[in-house]
Specification:
The chain is an alpha/beta fold. About 45% of the residues lie in helices and about 15% in strands. It has a single domain (about 15-320), classed as TIM Barrel. Strand 5 and strand 6 form a beta hairpin.
Length: about 325
């Protein structure tokens, strides 16, 4: 990282692929993942070169949707182990530039806990990535309690990544699911995580929500109204508002000109992080996103590059104290 590292971006939402992973997915019949035209290209050298020209000091690599579980528990566990080992190898080759978020083979909770525990001991591992649902299992499911406890005990990050909802063939109406379905499924999953009390039972969890909170900013007041106005047992509007203030949010997707502004009206700017969503977002769109990050400012008057860089250093302060990532 350069001497000007305080102003370099930290990309918490950057994806990688491996030949073995794509072969496993296509072998399971996934040639058009989530209704997209096909699989993008990715290489380590290109990714690092793009970081250099974009002045991204550090990036967290992860496997995007559809994750690693294609229907067979044993195969999913093997694939999770493989991609995590490859990610760790990439991080060892660029220890000052790359970390990774481990893939886990949900909905097999026992295997997911086991792989999270193993992978979080690998070089470069800073947390885990979870899909918004795993074959219909959402993140507030009681069965996931051992996983949340294990992640909290390791003080690891959690990135929630949207995926296709159950019955996506019907709800998606033939359109690419990242356009609409991802946003609603991410919102549904985060709401379930909060309303089921996961963050209350595990206050040490550090959870990153992508895409400027998806539809959460639009529904924030409505959810608060229901919790306050119907006097139902369970969480209150205050609980919901407190949880929103504790979550972290990345800027992947289309934060400008409206989405990020609406989110910041609710949560402020101190929990906003940069996310590129590369390699699934085409390179020209990532570049355009960065132009806007540099020209738009947050409530403090600083560019979003400076705001998110400072926020990432606060989020990752524990990792920095342990030497991961260096010099953040």
């Amino acid at each position: 990282m350069s001497p000007d590292a305080d102003h370099q971006l930290v990309d918490v939402h950057a994806h990688f692929l491996t030949d073995e992973y794509v072969a496993a997915a296509t072998g399971a019949g996934i040639s058009r993942p989530d209704g997209m035209p096909g699989w993008p290209d990715w290489s380590l050298d290109t990714h690092v070169a793009d970081m250099d020209r974009r002045d991204v000091g550090f990036a967290l690599l992860s496997i995007s949707s559809p994750g690693v579980h294609f229907g067979d528990d044993d195969a999913a566990a093997d694939l999770a182990r493989l991609v995590n080992d490859i990610a760790s190898h990439h991080c060892r080759s660029h220890p000052q530039r790359l970390g990774f978020l481990a893939s886990i083979p949900l909905p097999d909770v026992d295997a997911a806990v086991s792989e999270a525990d193993r992978a979080l001991g690998l070089s470069g591992a800073l947390g885990v990535i979870v899909e918004s649902n795993a074959h219909g299992q959402y993140l507030g499911d009681q069965a996931l309690e051992p996983l949340w406890a294990a992640i909290e005990a390791r003080d690891a990050l959690v990135l929630i990544h949207p995926t296709s909802p159950p019955a996506a063939d019907q709800t998606g109406l033939g359109r690419p699911r990242p356009m609409l379905e991802f946003m609603f499924d991410s919102t549904r999953s985060v709401a379930d995580l909060v309303l089921s009390g996961v963050l209350t039972r595990h206050p040490g969890l550090r959870v990153i929500v992508p895409h400027s909170g998806a539809v959460l900013p639009a529904l924030h007041d409505r959810i608060s109204l229901f919790l306050d106005g119907f006097a139902a047992p369970g969480p209150t509007g205050d609980d919901w508002r407190d949880a929103m203030g504790r979550l972290w949010f990345d800027t992947a997707g289309t934060p400008f000109p409206r989405a990020l502004r609406h989110l910041v009206e609710i949560v402020g700017e101190r929990h906003i992080l940069y996310g590129s969503d590369s390699c699934w977002t085409p390179s020209p769109l990532v570049d355009d996103h960065l132009v806007q990050m540099r020209t738009h400012t947050g409530p403090s008057g600083r560019s979003w590059v400076d705001v998110t860089a400072a926020n990432a250093r606060r989020l990752l302060r524990n990792e920095a104290e342990r030497g991961l990532p260096p010099r953040l």
